[in-house]
Each structure stands twice: as C-alpha cells, then as structure tokens.
Amino acid sequence: MDAIILQILNGLEKGGAYALIALGLTLIFGTLGVVNFAHGALFMLGAFCAVVMRALLTMEVATGEVESTAWGTEIAVTTPYVTNLFGDFGNTMIDWAVPLSILLTVPVMLFVGWAMERGLIRHFYKRPHAEQILVTFGLAIVLAELVKAVFGANPIPVPEPAALGGMMDFGALFGSEPDKITYPMWRFVYFLFSATIIIIVFMFLKFTTFGMVVRAGMEDRETVGLLGIDIGKKFTFMFAVSAAIAGLAGAMYTPIISPNYNIGMEFLVLSFVVVVVGGMGSLGGAVAAGFMLGLLQSFAAMNEVKEILPGIDQIIIYLVAIIVLLVRPRGLMGRKGVMET
Amino acid sequence: MKILTNPSAGVDTTMMLVFVVAVLTMPFWLTLIGAGYPDLMQKFVIFGLFATGFNILFGLTGYLSFGHAAFLGIGSYTAVWSFKLLGMNPIPAAIFAVAVSGVFALVIGFISLRRSGIYFSILTLAFAQMCYALAYSVLTPITNGETGLRVIGDDPRILDGIITSGVNPSTPTVNLFGLDLTQTWVWNGYYFNAGFYFCAIILIIGSYIAMRIFRSPFGLMLKAVKTNQNRLNYTGVNTKPYTLAAFVISGMYAGLAGALLCITDPLAGAERMQWTASGEVVLMVILGGMGTLMGPMLGAGIIKFAEQKFSTWGKTELHEFFAFIPDGIRDTVVSVASLFVGSGWHLTLGLVFMLIVIYLPGGIVEGGRRILMWASGSNRRNRKLQAAAQAAE
Amino acid sequence: MAILEVRNVNKRFGGLQALNDVNLSVEQGSVHAIIGPNGAGKSTLLNCFVGRLTPDTGSVMFNGKSLLGIMPHEINQAGVSRVFQTPEIFTDLSILDNVMIPTFAHRDGAFKVNWWPRVDREAGTQDHAMSVLEEIGLADKKDVIASSLSRGDKRRLEMAMCLAQDPKLLLLDEPTAGMSRADTNATIELLQRIGKSRGITKIIIEHDMHVVFSLADKIAVLAQGTVIAEDLPENIKTDPRVKEAYLGEEAEA
Questions:
Q1: DSSP code of B137?
Q2: How many angstroms separate the CA of residue C154 from the nearest CA in chain B?
C-alpha cells in the first residue's frame, strides 16, 4: 500500500512534466499543423534559464576585505552581490533561484518561440510533414549544441529552495504512522506547479476570445481562416505560449534532474509518445495521457512488477504507444478523422 | 514543360564503372585530401552502404523511418555472436546479420507500416528506442549491456576456435579464410587495408543491387507509392507489401552495415542504436540527395569526413587556417570559428542540415544538377520554353 | 448480358439515407450514365463499386463475382478501372512511367518484387504503353513530367492509365468537370472512339447533359438516393419524374 502511494506520487510528478511538454506540442500541432521536433530543445532551454538565473544571483563581488588561508596566502573575500545589496533577503533570493527563474523563463521563452515561428516554422506550414520534422530536428541539434558550447557538456546541479527541499511526510498527513510514506517535497511541488499551469492554460483557452479562436482553429483551420481573423499573428503568439510552457516545465524540473544539453532529446521522444497516445491535436488527451503514462512508468518500476516482467519499466511507454497507435490510431481522445492514417 | 528522362542502361553502366574505380582507388585519392586512413575509409564505405539502403525506403517510398539505427545495432550484435560461436570469418557473420535484421525489419515494418506519415516516423522511433532500452539493460545476457558485446578468448568459435586459440587467445581478429582483415599494407604513404577492401566490395555489390532496384519495375512501383498511393491502390497494386519489402530491404542493408562495423573492432554496443544514430543516416541521405542513387553515399562520405576533420580541429589549427587575417582580428575570428569545430562540430552539422532542408531539399546532387543546368544555359532555355508553353495554354 | 448487377443497395451516414434500395443493371459493352441532382448519391454509389465504401445491405456483382468486402486493388485486378473527379496521377513521374505502372500492374498482378529487369528494357510493356499513349494523343509528350501537364492533359493521361489495363469496366466520375467546351468535346470524341475500338463497358457520372446524351446508351437517374428512372436517353428526356427531380432542385435553389 505504501509503495503504491509512493509510485502514484512519482507518476504524478513525471506525468506533470510529460503533460506540460505534450500540451505545447499538441497545441502547435493542432493549430499550426506542424510537428515540432525541437520542442524538447525548448524544455532544455527553459531548464537553462534556471541555470542562468542562479548564476546571475550568485555572481560575486569582492567585499574589499582580505583573508589569509592556512598557508598564509591572502585572498580577497567575495560575496554574492545580491547579499551585498539586500543582505539576508539576498540570500533568500539565491535560495529561491529556481522559482524566481520563472520571471526570466517566461519572457525569454516567449521571445524564443516568437523568433522560431517568425524565422523558421512559418515557412514550413505548406511543406510536407517530413520536411517539418527534418528542419525542426536540425534546429533541435543546433539549439542543443549552442547550449553545450556555452555551458559545457556536464549536468549542472540547481538546488531547490531549502524550505521546499527535504522529504515530506505523507503518512502523517493522512493520519497514518509518521515516517512511513515520505516523498521529496520538491517533486510534489512540481506536480502542483504543472497542474496549476495546465489549469491556467485550459481556463485561458476556455474563457478568452483568443482561446476560442484557437480552439476553433484546432477544430477546423480553414474555416477560421475564412472568418477574416488574422490567423498569422495568433499562430505566432500560440507558438510563443507553447514555447513558454515547455520552458517553464524545464526550469522547474532542474532540481529533479540536473540539466545538460541533451535533456531535451530524452524528453522529446517521450512527449511525442504522450501526444500520440492522447491523440494528436487533443489538449485533454495530452494531459490525460501524460499523467497516465507517468503513472504507468512508475508502477512498472516497482520491484514487484519487475520481478514478474524484468525490464518492463524501460519499455512500457513504447509498448503502450505501439498498441494505442495500432488499435486506436487517433489516440485516446483524438477526434475521428484527424491524422488517422 | 519539365522533361524527365530516366538514364539509359549505358549511362548507368558507365556511372557504375566510374563508381567502382572510385571506390577501389579510394586509398589514393582520399590520401590527397588527407582522409586516407583505413579506419576512416572503412567508415565511408560502411555508412555509404547504410545510407544507400535507407534511401531505398526513404528516397523511393517517402516513408521517413526514425528507427533504422536499431537494425544497425542488431546487425552488429548478430555479427559478434557469429564471431563468438562460429568463428572469426566475416562471411557467415554478414549472412546472419542480414537474416536477423531482416526478420526484425519484417516484424517492426509490418506493424509500423499500418500507419503512414508522422505516425510511421513516431512508431519506428518508438520501436528503436525500445530496442535500445532492451539492448542497454533488459537483455544484458545477450547484449552485455553497457559494456558492449565483444569476442573473448574462451568463446567456443566452433569453426576456427581450435586453430587460432593457441596463436592469439585474448584478442582474435576477423579473418577471411586466413586473411587477417585488420592487416594494412603501406606503399609510398598509401594505406591498403584488407578490411576496407572487403567492405568496399560489399558496398559495390550493394550499390549495384540498389541501382537495379531503382531502375526496375519494383522500383517504379516504390516511386509511385511516394507520389500517389491512392492512385496506385486503384491501379490494382497492393501497396502494403511493396512498402514492407522496401522496409525489409533497407533494414537488411542496415544490418549488413552493422556487421561490417564489427570487422575492425568486434564490439557491439547499445549506443549504436540510439535515435541520434537514426537521425544521422537521415542527415546523410538528405544532405546527399534523397531518391538519387549516388547522393546518399556522397552524404555519408561528407558527414564522416567532416566529422573526422572538424572534430579534431582546435584553436591551433584554426590559427594556422586563418593565418592570412591580421593578428588583432584573427583572435576574434578564431574564437567564433572554434564554436563550430572540435566538440562543437555537431553544431555545424545541424546548421548545414537546416540550410539544406530549407533551401535545397534535393540535397547536393540536386544542387550540382542546378549548377550544371545553369552553366550549360539550358536553364534559361527551359524558362523560355515554359513561358511559351504557358502562353499557349 | 449484364456485366454489373447492383441489387437493393442501401447506405446510411448517420441520419442520412444516402442510397435507398438502389438497383442497377449495366449491359456488357454499353455506356451507362448516372445522372441526378447534387447530393443524389451518385458518388456514394460509385464508391461502392470500387471498394472505398461498403453498402449496409445489398449486393454488387461484377461478372458474377461480388465486389463487396474486397480491397480496391482487388477490384481493379478483377477488371474495374476508375477515373477520378480531380485527376489522380503520379505527378512526380514522366507520362510514360505513369502509363507503365498500370501496365505492370496488369501484367504482374497486385504485388511482385520484380527488381532485376530494367523498366526501359521491358520491350513488351513499353510498346503497349506507347500504343495507348498514341491512341490518346499524348505520345509526343512521353518524357514530360506529369505535374506540368494542363488539366485537360492530366485527365487524358488518367484515361490512358486506365486503358493501359484493358479494363472490362471503366468508371468515369464527371470526366469533363471544369473543362472548357472545346476540351469537353474532345473528351466526348475520345470516349466514343475508345468505346468503338475496344468495346469497354463504361459507367459515367455526369452533370453535363450534352456529354450524357452524346455518349450514353442508357441513363439512370438518381434522386435522394433512389433510382427514379432507368431508360433509353430519348425516354429520359421526356420523363416527367426526371423533370420534377431536376426542377424541384432548381425551385429549392
């Protein structure tokens, strides 16, 4: 029982990341009809926004004091400039670098998405899917390599805020024995965060005029074009928003997996599977499939399951994807007739 | 109006002869451009073979597989097992690799080809990732997991184990009926490697078969699949077995290439199956020119050559290269350029690839054709003809 | 003798009864036209003949063999060829290759890995394809890439592709749609010529009455999914039910 609760928590956290990336992917596919192989790279860029944020906050200045080491050499004492400026509050800022990085991630990723759509994707709307896949695949390589050139190839650890670190005692929360079911607090925070973002996106699409146009566009792109709405600008914005969602998913994930330039590729394959299982162009499907596959993966990783089916945790997601594509090609919640063949 | 004439048998024979001579004399002319090392030349021909096979699927039918590295890996594992169990002769290894990868391609292709377009791409990608995960951890008894599978001294090797065990028990090398394929003869600074020539002959056979397929009724049907599958169905053709046949053939080429990779170094590792490796063969075919006979080989050669050159360059080489630039500016130029070489050469690759997809989807072969047309002036004449035809309509 | 027998075919799409108890009998060697107002079910019916749709009930017999539940390529191999409303050709290939493909399909069947011989050394099929191109008047353009043809030529190429298979039954879905008067007349002339030299049975779906009355031996009129009349052209002209069906449509419009 305890193990199951733990795996549910694990699944929710993983599923949250999958769902966020898949949400952006499917938004782009549903509105623009573009298969974006560079979406994982956007996740990776977001993660590096957190890295940059922390680096900015921890930049150090000399205090003017001098300290001597045990060997007698004198070195200048340095402190982070935010500590200099704000004192203890500055230290708190450094501690909260990851959540604070949202402030950096959103504008940066909106800009990246805008530039990508304007500069590249726009010219591929009318070209075959294979070429869209290829050019975004090329872009994914370029973005990953640029990050590698700047930040190096090694993973860069980014800690979570101390207050949200450590373990959370779930058992005590539900009134059972304390210290029985403990779970890293940040992972749970990540789940809450992704759920919040998903709700915001759905509210936005449901209750704003812009959202309505986007949803109508996902239903029937040509008709919306005929309504005289300037789809071009909306597409650009939509792409930027999807990039920002992927970026946020990446930035907040940094305490869980230290990012390196390659992290995007790993997540991309998985989130494609999620989109396909959920149904291309279906927002609800992307979210549902994200959490479902996250949970499945966690359960498959349980020792009890692995004893019966060794290695199942490594391949479960692909197996599910293959079965879904064959049995129900439009995905769990995809609409009939959309990209079925 | 655009004219499209297929090359005649004579043109093809000439092209094939030129190709054979070019491949067999590679140790000479590649040394001139600084690429005449046995290892690198072997890579040229092996990846040329891989790309040629991939082109039969992607270039002719238009089905974009993102999982062909799986077959490369399967070929390698099979070859190493053949070395371990049967002996160090590459011929049974190659035959088994082709057969086993063909079986895998049949199963994976049968399922993946129930879908087309991006779904096909994603299905093949999922299968390849699954194979990778299986090879990397789950099937460790067969694949030896992370460390990779290699030939060791006390393997049974029932065909030649007894003969060679006394001679060189720890590191047996691949040999073709006694001819050590790792052997290299040096003459006047040119390297002639037995393994290279073995691979080169297989490449020549492979490209000859590819040429026959391209010009045959079977190949014509595959081209028709790419152009209009609907019409083909209503023309009495069952497209499924055609695409499956193309998939299996290209999978067999990949498996054969995988087996050849084990000739110099009888080692098979899971990283050979990663999806970036599948992406690489797509790059080769696109760069050279999809659907053309020689393009994929050209693409494979250029990518492997550039990998070798760019990835070994550092600041010192760049300073020499940019020696003509005045000192003050040179440092800046070098530091910018250094982003694109050494470990950053993938950046160059990605950029070149994007540029090709954006501006020249037909690849280098198409580019060459355009230049030829332009040079011979037929481009201008063609335009005039087109204008006249439009006026006439 | 009837080459195509359609018995009690019904097809529903949700609440819409697209085909309602359709009966049709097409004589060997004749030209049978199916006319009717928009949405009468003409294309639905045609799609039932080629395996794109399966009727809910009823039977479609071709030469004594049922066409239901078998794949489009099997229907084609049985001798039924189809010309689409918008020409479906292999746009990336040359005209000659476009005609070679159906020729090979006719000779080799639905699937054959015929990878050794060269297409340009297959003298028999080459000659056959060229003779069809000559008949249809595209021989001088044999090396032209199909995408650069005019619309009328694309249609003619599609007909050549069908003829290359020596079909027993040729289905034509609005063969003159979107054509100029001159092109239409050329197509009529072509269809008449093909009819005479080969004796292929043809089913034509058409809006243009000029085309219908120039070609058809027999006309079936579909309205709201039902055959309301099936008769000789001169009788159809004067049939009050037909007038009503067409006038009714005009009155509604």
A1: I
A2: 13
